[in-house]
Amino acid sequence: MPFLTAAVLAAFVGYAGAWYFELVEGNFALLLFLATIVTGVYWVAERLYYLPKRRRAAEELEANAAERRASLDARGIVADDPQLAETRQRVLAQPWWLDWTAGLFPVILAVFVLRSFLFEPFKIPSGSMIPTLLVGDLILVNKFTYGLRLPVLNTKLTEGTAPKRGDVMVFRYPPKPSLDYIKRVVGVPGDEVAYLNKKLTINGQPVESTRLPDYFDRDAMRYFKQFEEKLGDKSHRLLNDDERPAFIPGVEEFPFKQNCRYSVEGVACKVPEGHYFMMGDNRDNSLDSRYWGFVPDKNIVGKAFLIWMNFGDFKRIGSFE
Predict the structure, then answer these.
(1) Catalytic-labelled residue, pool 53, 71, 126, 128
(2) Active site includes 183?
(3) Is the dihedral angle over the CA atoms 140, 146, 147, 151 positive or is it negative?
(4) 36, 153: one domain
(5) Residue 173: inside a domain, yes or no?
(6) What is the mean pLDDT of each run of 10 residues along the chain (321 residues)?
(7) Total domain count for the chain?
(8) Residue 235 catalytic?
(9) Which of 44, 143, 189, 259 could be disulfide-bonded to 270 (CB atoms 3.0-4.6 Å)?
(10) Which range marks the domain in which residue 250 is found?
(11) How far apart are CA 263 and CA 280, in angstroms?
């Protein structure tokens, strides 16, 4: 078993290393699921076989020591074994290969349940959601609001509440589902969404927008036009870049592309059933549904709701819309 365990641990370390150096495309949910299963098997084996076996060995050790003392006492020899307690502890101690498997199972199981069904942490990697979310923000995503899903398979277990316009949502990137993206829900099933000349309309109604003071992007060292937009009952800020054109360059092929009409002014799309139209708040610096299409319900990960840390700016900690 020590050799088998060493091989299993080496496989996990090798996979994690290859993922880190981008030699393979990693899947953390699958890795965590497999770690839970493997350590769970060891934990059961420890409780049902290895621990009782060590206890029997300790009891046999104590029985032999007691028999030896009785034999010496019968001959009038007073003897004691000062190392008996230490020897007993060594016999009962978990070997390293169980300590690194069965011993980790409760922690891994707790992380698996928490991450799969309650909350999952993410780090914002790009500026597509500026000014709402900045690069380096560490956020929490609610995994149950939109319905509980089986980990890895992402099969829906409960219905939950359907995503609403204005929600900030994490989802699996449709062209490459192994990647997680974060954008704002702009269109829900059945909506006619138009973004023409950098103005958003939904079902023919212009979305309420108010001009705010320009926003200074410290990374770009530039000022951008800033607006407050109201989607449903939620208000959020967004940016526009006057140097970027209104038309959408480099549009990919995607399912239901026939629902969209592209022009030099922008794009208008009819959102199909079971799908959502997503846009970043940094409107001219966001690769979103305008480029790669709609997000199917099966790709939903959860609703982002809290910045729990930003090591460059502690003032950013808190909830957001």
Answers:
(1) 128
(2) yes
(3) negative
(4) no
(5) yes
(6) 87 84 82 93 94 89 79 68 78 89 94 94 94 95 94 88 96 93 97 97 95 92 94 92 92 96 97 98 96 96 95 92 84
(7) 2
(8) no
(9) 259
(10) 124-319
(11) 20
